[in-house]
Task: inverse folding
């Protein structure tokens, strides 16, 4: 037999002696009380007390206490397998909300496609924590790491190009926010998942890439868009009508997926680049990469737990206590 809390058994070293001391004191007090009443006469002639029964009850009560202490020490033998769905990974989703994500080369838009993919990803990975960072020319932590899917989905739904007022695509600022959030996380397995078209890159992302490498945080990049055929960016004017975005010269602004740069960034952090299209969202590949964050020996869906047997000493203590209550101390006539 083994115990989950063996230190509790050490209490028996003072409980048992204390019990006998208290019993001895109580016995002496009873004798003194009777002596004060009957004097020096024979106590047995004036009482119906059975000394044998009292001694038996004394030992019964002692064993009740002993078995209760054993139950508190949580004895066990054998093991059982339980389903394991513990939290294993902390992942920050970094979502590009620049105007180029309104391009419709991936229907309905790049941004809508990315948000749908993110929701599918979170739904498929129970037990993991996710956070959300929106970025364009600057970045903001929209939702810290959480297991609350409903709150995260609600924030994701409201995230759009108005979430970040500064235009552009500054991945460096987004990565800085991500690193700060992950450094404060308690999990052992962390990753950054970047959803972007990589268009109009600003800042020097190489600095933050080095930091990700130093913290051994992989960067999974999901590229959304067409690297060969630029897409037009459709926005709404002040009246709510749809129109195509134009530059200062009056020319239509075209945006294409900057796949070359995104592949390089993923490679430098031992991450992976995935291109998401209307026919293949890349969800399966992304799920495989996330699963590989934890070594295979740690991701078994069963967990070994000791088979606790505290009920046995608890039942014995209860039975002994019932006997203790039912056993009288009156001696038989033959005693």
Result:
């Amino acid at each position: 037999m083994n115990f989950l809390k063996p230190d509790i058994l050490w209490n028996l070293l003072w409980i048992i002696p204390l019990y006998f001391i208290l019993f001895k004191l109580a016995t002496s007090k009873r004798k003194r009380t009777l002596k004060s009443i009957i004097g020096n006469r024979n106590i047995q002639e004036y009482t119906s007390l059975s000394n044998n029964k009292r001694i038996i009850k004394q030992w019964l009560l002692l064993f009740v206490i002993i078995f209760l202490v054993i139950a508190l020490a949580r004895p066990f033998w054998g093991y059982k397998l339980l389903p394991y769905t513990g939290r294993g990974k902390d992942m920050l989703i970094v979502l590009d909300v620049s105007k180029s994500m309104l391009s419709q080369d991936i229907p309905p838009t790049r941004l809508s496609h990315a948000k749908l993919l993110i929701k599918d990803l979170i739904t498929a990975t129970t037990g993991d924590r996710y956070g959300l960072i929106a970025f364009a020319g600057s970045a903001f932590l929209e939702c810290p790491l959480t297991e609350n899917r409903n709150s995260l989905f609600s924030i994701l739904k409201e995230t759009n190009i108005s979430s970040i007022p500064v235009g552009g695509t500054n991945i460096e600022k987004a990565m800085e926010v991500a690193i700060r959030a992950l450094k404060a996380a308690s999990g052992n397995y962390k990753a950054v998942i970047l959803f972007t078209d990589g268009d109009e890159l600003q800042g020097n992302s190489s600095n933050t890439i080095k930091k990700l490498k130093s913290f051994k945080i992989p960067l999974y990049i999901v590229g959304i868009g067409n690297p060969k055929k630029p897409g037009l960016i459709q926005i709404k004017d002040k009246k709510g009508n749809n129109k195509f975005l134009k530059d200062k010269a009056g020319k239509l602004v075209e945006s294409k997926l900057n796949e070359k740069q995104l592949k390089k960034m993923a490679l430098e952090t031992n991450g992976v680049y995935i291109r998401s299209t209307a026919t293949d969202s890349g969800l399966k590949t992304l799920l495989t990469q996330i699963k590989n964050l934890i070594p295979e020996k740690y991701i078994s869906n069963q967990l070994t737990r000791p088979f606790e047997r505290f009920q046995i000493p608890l039942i014995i203590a209860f039975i002994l206590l019932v006997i203790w209550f039912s056993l009288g101390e009156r001696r038989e006539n033959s005693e």
